[in-house]
Design a protein that fits this description.
Layout (H helix, E strand, L loop, with lengths): L1 E7 L5 H7 L6 H11 L3 E8 L3 E8 L5 H10 L4 H5 L3 E4 H12 L11 H16 L4 H20 L9 H11 L6 E5 L3 H12 L3 E6 L2 H11 L4 E5 L3 H5 L4 E4 L20 E5 L14 E5 L4 H10 L1 H24 L2 H25 L8 H26 L5 H11 L26
Parallel strand pairs: 5-6, 5-8, 6-7, 8-9, 9-10
Antiparallel strand pairs: 1-3, 1-4, 2-3
Helix pairs in contact: 5-7, 5-13, 6-7, 7-13, 8-9, 14-15
Length: about 425
């Protein structure tokens, strides 16, 4: 069965989320220990971002609370803290959640497209490690197809927003006076911050651990308002500039209390990283905002898109139903029964036709039927055996779909190789 264990910005504070977040270098070790600890886990994808830590699972038991206990122990976190913020979802609820996440309907910033790429990377990593197999592969590709549908048929992702754009909007609402802003980090969020700040007329001082990377970004953006500084000068810079956006992939805080000096001016800092880049502060002249502080702007953005959101949710409900129907259609036993029954019916029809036209005496009907039945049994023996042997292989979906098409066993559209997400059904707005 499909299952999701979710810790997200909706239910768990950032101080706990950053403690269970995993850097890429530790993922394989995590997967290995997880699978060795729980025999009922058949497949798993770990999605770890700044807003969520989620296990997308295929399990053969609903006793997944033990996994929450294991995570608490593995990351040395109080079990009560994790239990207060966990969502446990199964089957259709789990699929609905996966499809919603892929379509950015469950994101802090509604409609942002970054999460789709993050989920694709998480799937790719797990698949390459061997921890994601056929069942999750099916769900992932349907989820990505669903995300593409929603992007093309709703306005959810039009004029796209992101955590970076929401942070900049909040920053602008604070009426900053000076025009130079420090951006630390040259990942996706950092680069977006630079672009948004430039578009609003600010100058940017860009810092990266790799100076060449920062220089390459400046060259790519081709804007003289970008200055580059060495990461070694971080302490001096944070104490001489009032505005700061931080978004690195560091596993620990890069700005600590001992680095901060008393300044005469008010400072506004945004920490958009998880784990957080800036150690929690209580400095009077520093207004520090983290991801979870951006809710007001996020709610406003969501309210403006409520109509499109409802339309998108209807599409997800429809896609979950289609996915379930498609899964049911891939069961090989009904397929075998269907093409054997079709062969039998062809025999019955032809014998009846022959008797009606006088080609065959009705007294011979039973003997002829037995002969034809034996002939078709021999003819269908190999296909029947082959289909039974390949039903657990990843390629079986493609083979089954084409057998259905070859024998004309379905009255509806066939999904050509769903692993490539080549086709999707048009959403009926009335849900029919």
């Amino acid at each position: 069965m499909y299952c999701v264990i979710s810790f997200s910005h909706k239910h768990l504070d950032i101080s706990i989320r950053e403690r269970i977040a995993f850097p890429q270098s530790e993922l394989k070790q995590f997967y290995t220990k997880l699978f060795s600890s729980f025999s009922f886990i058949q497949e798993c994808i770990l999605l770890s971002t700044c807003n969520r830590f989620e296990l997308l699972l295929v399990v053969n038991s609903k006793d997944v609370k033990s996994i929450v206990e294991w995570i608490a122990s593995y990351r040395d976190i109080s079990l009560s803290q994790l239990q207060s913020g966990v969502q446990l979802l199964f089957e259709d609820e789990a699929l609905d959640h996966i499809f919603s996440v892929a379509s950015s309907l469950d994101s802090l910033v509604l409609g942002e497209t970054q999460i789709t790429g993050q989920l694709k990377n998480a799937y790719k990593t797990s698949y390459e490690f061997g921890f994601c197999k056929k069942e999750l592969t099916r769900a992932m590709h349907f989820a990505f197809k669903c995300a593409a549908l929603i992007r093309s048929q709703t306005q959810i992702s039009k004029s796209p927003t992101s955590v970076a754009s929401v942070a900049i909007a909040h920053f602008l609402n604070l009426n900053p006076q000076k025009k130079k802003v420090v951006v630390v980090g040259t990942g996706e969020i950092g680069i977006l911050c630079v672009k948004y700040l430039l578009s609003h007329g600010f100058e940017v001082l860009l810092l990266s651990r790799t100076l060449d990377h920062a220089c390459a970004i400046k060259q790519e953006l081709n804007d003289d308002r970008i200055d580059i500084a060495s990461f070694a000068n971080l302490t001096e810079i944070i104490n001489s500039h009032p505005y700061l956006f931080c978004a690195t992939g560091a596993p620990h805080a890069i700005i600590t209390k001992d680095m901060i000096k008393t300044c005469s001016f008010q400072r506004i800092w945004f920490d958009l990283a998880l784990p957080r880049d800036i150690q929690p502060l209580e400095e009077e002249n520093i207004a520090l905002f983290v991801i979870d502080d951006l809710q007001e702007v996020v709610v406003e953005n969501k309210n403006k898109r409520e109509e499109e959101l409802q339309k998108a949710r209807g599409m997800i409900c429809q896609q979950v139903k289609l996915f379930r129907q498609w899964l049911a259609s891939l069961d090989v036993e009904p397929l075998i029964k269907a093409f054997r029954e079709k062969a039998k019916q062809c025999c019955i029809d032809e014998v009846s036709r022959a008797i009606k036209k006088g080609f065959l005496d009705s007294a011979e009907e039973e003997k002829v039927m037995r002969i034809m039945h034996n002939a078709f049994n021999k003819f269908l023996h190999h296909p029947t055996t082959y289909i039974k042997t390949i039903k657990e292989n990843p390629e079986s979906d493609f083979i089954v779909e084409n057998i259905q098409k070859l024998f004309d066993l379905r009255g509806k559209e066939v999904f050509n190789n769903p692993y490539k997400c080549e086709k999707h059904l048009k959403y009926d707005e009335e849900g029919k």
